[in-house]
Amino acid sequence: MRPESAVTTAEMRKIEADAIESGSVTGLDLMERAGAGAVSAARERLMPDPAGKRVLILCGPGNNGGDGYVIARILHDLDAEIELRALGAPGQGAPDALANRKRWLEIGTVMPLDDSAAMGAQPDLVIDALFGTGLARGVDPAIFDPVRARIGAAPIIAVDLPSGLCSDSGQVIGAEGGILPATLTVSFHRPKRGHYLRDGPRFCGALAVCDIGLGATEGAVRLVRAPDGLGKGHGHKFSYGHALVLSGGMGQSGAARLAARAALRVGAGLVTIGAPAEAMPEIAAQITALMLRRVDDAGNFAGLLDDPRINALCLGPGLGLGPREAALIGTALVSARPAVLDADALTLIAADPELRSALHPNCVLTPHEGEFARLFPDIADRSEGPGWGKPDLVAEAARRSGCVILLKGPDTVIATPEGNVMLHAAAYERAAPWLATAGSGDVLAGLIAGLLARGAAPAAAAQTGVWLHTEAARHMGAGLIAEDLPDLLPRVLQDL
Ligand SMILES: NC(=O)C1=CN([C@@H]2O[C@H](COP(=O)(O)OP(=O)(O)OC[C@H]3O[C@@H](n4cnc5c(N)ncnc54)[C@H](O)[C@@H]3O)[C@@H](O)[C@H]2O)[C@@H](O)CC1
Ligand SMILES: Nc1ncnc2c1ncn2[C@@H]1O[C@H](COP(=O)(O)OP(=O)(O)O)[C@@H](O)[C@H]1O
Ligand SMILES: [K+]
Q: Which terms in the Gene Ontology molecular function aspect does this entry carry (predicted)?
């Protein structure tokens, strides 16, 4: 079953507590399933036959450690050689973990984590069951010292989370070095937000999520999935909308051309670039199916917008930061047309309270981190950690500005003013590191504008746009530059 959402610690606790309270399962059952799931993932991906293998298991004082004791017992039954090291014993607050520690002590021994004198030979596999979703503060890097030296090249499986990673924010809570980076992270029921956000993917290695029988319960943040097909039916070109992309002056038109080409490739019926007179020759020399109209100022822009068939706008890529551009944005917002506001448009809006107050629910703002901080400095300043991560801050920004916000990155978060939040992770099997290239953001803006022209609602256009953007990059892989992205779309669309 493919997870539909990524959960917070609080959501996961509630899902577990509800299941236990309903009487359908006990905490011990869940812990047993979690331990068994981790062993299955280990056998599938790293160690098919544990017999005779040395496994070093690190157990913490909570239920994450409880999973570790279960894993020790199962691997012992498979004839692995277990060395179990614990950071204290589970207290009364973790009775299931305590019960599993007792069961383990009937068949094996526990040594303290910091007793480096008694360390055995180098392990074939390390299981990190120190801290999971219960991580409450930064981990003292020194606790890893006794084992770090010994791990060598052995793969590390993190149980639920690499110890030190915040499950809500994807950040290492404490000091540098206060985390054990994993080769494979095995989580339970649903991925945690931190598996995808910020540093999460780098520290998790690979990610496996195993079912522990908690049904179809989901968290509030949905994961963006492939769109349902973007085929064209019977209509003519005007059935698929007309997007207008505004360009900056001479020598600045590349970004608008990239965006416009993406809008056309994603299936907008018509796409026009609106440019000042001085830039028109340069643009005309480089386009064919795209159309070109003169937009010198807000006056002729408003005239163009008298055509009701122009049903989506894209403003910002390479636009410029002067009074002309501010006036163009004002005109676009007054027209209430669905609009993508990116790059320079965001900088202008950040500096102009009047423009900001004209934002409306058909706007999609696509800031990168720097632009986001300019737009919402107080939100961006708040440090992330348990209970507050990227999805929360984007949700707050969307609520405040009354439009859809898409905060870019390998962990793109999209939020609507009504409080719907979606996470698109370009990570793990969908990693697309070659998107870190000049102009790729312009292509994303154009994709969303093209989808708006085709009639998609703003949040849907944002989700589909970001998915297609990553997918196109994945089709190309190494060597990708922004110019390639629009022309990779046919393959992506045909595969849908
Ligand atoms: N409750 C359940 O039914 C299930 C829980 N599961 C496991 O339980 C984990 C959550 O368990 P817990 O809520 O007990 O939390 P954890 O086991 O993740 O950690 C909590 C313990 O660590 C201590 N601690 C937190 N931060 C610390 C730090 N920086 N330095 C030193 N000590 C620190 C706390 O005082 C507490 O004793 C999940 O990640 C998952 O692995 C799974 O077994 C599935 C079922
Ligand atoms: N490492 C990465 N993995 C996946 N996507 C990335 C990565 N780095 C950047 N991106 C994506 O590439 C785009 C870059 O946009 P932006 O920062 O506006 O750059 P530019 O202004 O040069 O076009 C965004 O959609 C962002 O999400
Ligand atoms: K862990």
A: ADP-dependent NAD(P)H-hydrate dehydratase activity; ATP binding; metal ion binding; NAD(P)HX epimerase activity
Transcribe 381-401 into DSSP letters: HSPPBTTB-HHHHHHHHHHHH
Instruction: Give ligand 1 pocket residues (Cβ under 6 A).
Output: 16, 27, 30-31, 34, 60-67, 94, 131-139, 159-160, 188
Sign of CA dihedral 397, 462, 188, 156: negative
Rounded to whole angstroms, how far apart are CA atoms 87 and 146?
Answer: 12
Q: Dihedral angle at the C-alpha atoms of 397, 400, 402, 407, nearest 10 degrees?
A: -10
pLDDT digits (tens, 9 = 90+) for 223-254: 999 998 788 888 888 789 999 999 999 999 99
Residue ranges per domain, the chain? 5-219, 237-495
Which residue carries 């068939």 as its tokens? 309
DSSP-derived pairing of the beta strands 363-365 and 339-341: parallel
CA distances (Å), origin 368, targets 23, 343, 433, 468: 46, 8, 15, 18
- Both tokens of 183, joined, read 């080769």
Structural fold of domain 237-495: UDP-N-acetylmuramoyl-L-alanine:D-glutamate ligase (3.40.1190)
d(C-alpha 187, C-alpha 161), whole Å: 7
Please report the atom of ligand 2 found closest to the CA of residue 439.
Answer: 23
Residue 117 has pLDDT above 80, yes or no: no
Report pLDDT for 1: 59
> Residues lining ligand 2, CB < 6 A?
343, 368, 408-410, 412, 426, 432-433, 435-436, 438-442, 444, 469
Cα–Cα distance for residue pair 117/113, rounded to 1 Å: 11
- Fold classified for 5-219: Rossmann fold (3.40.50)
* 300 vs 296: CA distance, rounded Å: 7
Q: What is the pLDDT of residues 292-330, one digit of tens each?
A: 999 999 999 999 999 999 999 999 999 999 999 999 999
ipTM, 2 decimals? 0.95
